Amino acid sequence: MENSQLPAFSVSDFVASTNQTLEYAYPTVVVEGEVESFKVNQGKFVFFNLKDAGASIGCFMMVFALRVPLEDGMKVAVRARPKLTNFGKFSLTVDAIKPVGEGSIKKGFELLKAKLDAEGLFAPERKRLLPTIPRTVGIISSMQSAGYGDFMKIANERWGGVEFKVYHTLVQGLDAPEAMVRAIEYFNQLETPLDALVIIRGGGSTDDLSAFNDEQLVRSIAASRTPTLVGVGHEVDVTLSDLAADVRAATPSNAAQLLLPDKREVSTRVKSLASRLAPRMVQLILQRAEYVQGLRLEMYRKISSQLEQVEVRVGQHARLLESYNPAHVLARGYALVRGDAKPGGMIEVESSTYTLTAEVKSYDKK
C-alpha cells in the first residue's frame, strides 16, 4: 500500500474495533421502523428486519424480551445495541420493543388482548372485591405525576387513618413496564399483606399509555396476591392492565373514590340510620314491655288458680281429718273407754261432759 500511515487491521480486529467504536458512540439507541420478515426460531430466538423508505436493518432479540405480539407491517420502536457480526452483517441486538403509531399500537393491543383473554386473564369470575375500608394500601405511580396528586388529595379528603405505601416508579416509556412489575413483586413479597394495591397514572396519548399494555405487566397484575385497582388515563382510555385488574377505575381520582368511602356520606348515613332506628327501638322496647306484662299477668293467673286448687284440697283434707276427731263422737252421746277390760281391771270412761274411773266386774264377749 502506498500510504503506510493508514491503520491496518486483520478482519477480526477490524470487526472488534468497529464494535468498540459503536459501543462507545452508540451504547444504546432507539430506532423506529416497520417490521418485516418477523420469525421466531426454536421458540426462543426472534429475528426481524426494521425498515423505512430508505433503508433496512436486521434485528435480533430473545423471545422473553418480546412483551408485545408482533406482525409484519407494524411500526415499532426498539431499544438496541448496534453490532457488526463476524460475518460482516450490521444488526441491532434488541432488549425492548413497543409499537408506535395509533395503528400499530391498536394492532398489538388487539393481538395481545385476544391471547390473554383466551387464557382467562380477564374473566369476571376471577375478579376479587376490594375491602370495604382498607387499612394498608400500596400505590404504584410516579410521585411527580398529576394523577398521583389527584389520587392522594381525594383519598385523604374521603377517609382518614389509611396507611399508604408508595413505590415511586416510571409509568411511561420502554423501561416503565419492567419497573412496575418490580413494584408489584415488592408489594407481594411484604411479610404483612396489603389490603389493596393501586396502580395509577394520569392521562396521555395512546403511545404514553402503551406501557400498560405490556404482557408481563398485565400478567403480574392478574397474578397479584393483593386485590388490584388500576386507574390509568381518562375514562375513554382502556388498557390491558385495566382489564386484568380486579377493579378498573376510569381515572386516578375515580380510583380514590372506588377505594375509600366518603366519611361525610358515611356520617350522614349513620345519622339517618340512627334517626330511623331510635323510634323503632322505642317501639320494640314497648312491645317487649307489653309482652313481659302479659307474661306476668298470665303467670299470676296460673299461680292464683293453682293456689285456689291447693286451698280446696287442703279444706277437703281438713274436713276429713275433723270428721275423725273423737270429740265429735263424744258429743253425740258416746263415751270413750280406756283401760284393761277384764274382771277386776280398772277402766276410764270419758264422755263429752265427764270422765270416770270404774272397776270391771264382768264382761261378755260378742
TrEMBL record:
The keyword Ribonucleoprotein does not apply. GO terms for molecular function: exodeoxyribonuclease VII activity; nucleic acid binding. Keywords: Cytoplasm, Exonuclease, Hydrolase, Nuclease. Pfam families: Exonuc_VII_L, tRNA_anti_2. Residues 121-299 form the Exonuclease VII large subunit C-terminal domain. It catalyses: Exonucleolytic cleavage in either 5'- to 3'- or 3'- to 5'-direction to yield nucleoside 5'-phosphates. One of its GO terms (biological process) is DNA catabolic process. Its EC number is 3.1.11.6. One of its GO terms (cellular component) is cytoplasm. Residues 9-97 form the OB-fold nucleic acid binding domain. It comes from the Bacteria. Its main location: cytoplasm. Bidirectionally degrades single-stranded DNA into large acid-insoluble oligonucleotides, which are then degraded further into small acid-soluble oligonucleotides. Heterooligomer composed of large and small subunits. Belongs to the XseA family. This is Exodeoxyribonuclease 7 large subunit. It comes from Candidatus Mycosynbacter amalyticus.
